[in-house]
Amino acid sequence: MAPKPKQKSLLQSIFRFFIPKQMLSLKNWFWFGVSRIGVAVTTFYVSLTLIFSVIPVPFSAYMLQKKVEHLIQGDLYKIQYQWVSLDRISWQMQMSVIAGEDQKFPIHFGIDFDAIEAAIKRNSKSQKKPRGASTISQQTVKNLYLWHGTSWLRKGIEVPLTFLVELLWNKQRVLEVYLNIAEFGDGIFGVEAAAKHYFKKSASQLSLQEASLLAASLPNPMIYRVKIPSQTMRSRQQWIMRQVNNLGGINYLEKL
Predict the structure, then answer these.
(1) Could you tell me which residues are beta bridge partners of residue 189?
(2) Category of 8 on φ-ψ map: left (φ > 0), alpha (ψ -120 to 50) or beta
(3) How far is CA 228 from CA 218, 224, 225, in A?
(4) Are 35 and 125 part of one and the same domain?
């Protein structure tokens, strides 16, 4: 039975009260939905970043990506991973990754614009594979929340997430998470797992020579292998050791 005119008028009034007139078009509904999704995604990442500011990270998006990729291929993929606090990671290891990956880590707010400009100029003059200029903060965000691979979409998401992490975490926390989830070999994540796998010791006992070798593998641990270091990797290891000394060694960490 059709509603009476008064009932119909009342229903229309209620409908207009809860749903503004400007929302009645399909286009406005679309943007309304997009805005709600944006709010939900933002809330999710803010909440997760706040949680990970105080508790150990149980696993990263990159670990999950690798697990799924091997599962699809029908391969068994075992992850070696053990969280350790920053005070249980030798200063030599902390300084080696800063010296090798991001020497302006204490002073930038997640993005090193000078390094990006230099990388663009360098890559435009070189025929070799382009080199990036990602900071430790950006690499942390990529490993923790996103996926690996060349993608403008990922880069577009990475930048605001990097600013979010820098806003909610201090530098020590960024470095701590980075060192715990970075990949150091096939299925080897974090410095504790890497130290035990390659040197049969804990991350707190790593020497500068050992730490710099691990740091030298970080551009691509599948190519720069710690167990069988190439001459290129050895050269990078020596360069990192010199940079650690040039930066002031353990005293540099006081800037964080």
Answers:
(1) 81, 183
(2) alpha
(3) 14, 8, 5
(4) no
For residues 150 and 213, membership in a common domain is answered with yes
The CATH number assigned to the domain holding 70 equals 1.10.3810.10
| pLDDT at residue 2 greater than cutoff 60 | no
Beta bridge partners of 238: none
- The yes-or-no verdict on residue 217 having pLDDT over 70 is yes
Total of domains in the chain: 2
Please spell the DSSP secondary structure of 208-238, one letter per residue: HHHHHHHHHTTT-TTTS-SSS--HHHHHHHH
Query: What pLDDT was estimated at residue 206?
Result: 99
Mean pLDDT, residues 226-246:
97
* Tokens, residue 15: 């409908």
Residue count of the chain, please give it.
256
Residue 165: closest CA among 124, 110, 84, 226? 110
CA distance linking residue 201 with residue 68, whole number of Å: 30
Q: Is 125 inside a domain boundary?
A: yes
- Sign of the CA dihedral with 29 first, then 30, 33, and 34 last: negative
Structural domain harbouring 196? 58-255
User: What digits encode the pLDDT tens for the residues 221-233?
Assistant: 999 999 999 999 9
Residue 219 pLDDT: 81
Write b or e for each residue in 131-143: b if 16 or more Cβ atoms lie within 10 A of its Cβ, otherwise e: eebbbbbbbbbbb
| Mean pLDDT, residues 242-249 | 98
pLDDT in tens, 99-117: 999 999 999 999 998 877 7
37 and 126 assigned to the same domain = no
What CA–CA distance (Å, rounded) separates 51 from 116?
30
Terminal CA-CA length for the chain:
73
Asked if residue 143 belongs to a domain, the reply is yes
